[in-house]
Amino acid sequence: MAGVRIVPWGEDDLELLRQLNAPEIRAHTGGPETDEQVLARHERYVRFGGTGQGCMYTLVLPDGASVGSVGYWEREWHGEQVYELGWAVLPGYQGRGLATAAVRAALDVARARRTRRWAHAYPSVDNPPSNAVCRKAGFTLLGETEFEYPPGQLMRANDWRLDLTAGG
User: Are 105 and 97 in contact (CB under 8 A)?
Assistant: First the structure.
C-alpha cells in the first residue's frame, strides 16, 4: 500500500501496544497479556532497536495514524541463526494489505543488514490472514511445525521461509 511506512518503536507507542493486545488480535498467539506484561513488552521493544539483533516498528499511515506493529529478531531454528518476523494490525485496518506492506518493509531492512540468509515466520495453521501475508510477501511454505509461543505453550504453526540473499 502506497505511503505506508515503518518507524522504529518508540516510547510513545505504548497505547498502540495496548490496543494490539485485544483478544481478536492475540487469538492465535496465546491470548491477551496482562498490563504488566504489555508494559514489559513495550520496554523490550523500545530498547530492542539499539541491540543490533533486530528491530520492532510501528506501522504508520500517510495521515500519521499508527495502526500496527512489525518486527524481526534473531533466533536459532534447526541449528541455524535466522531472523523471525512477526506483525499485528488493528482490526479496523485489516484486509487492506497493510501487514504485507509492513512485512516487506521489515524484510528490506533485514536484507540490507546482510547478516542472515533466512527469514522465517510462524503463523498459526488456524490463521489464514497471517499465512496469506507470508505468501504475498514472497515466503515459501516449508510445512507445519510445533512452535513454542507464548513461552511454555506449543502451537501448530506453519514454517514459512524467505531467502534474504535472493534480492527483493
Answer: no
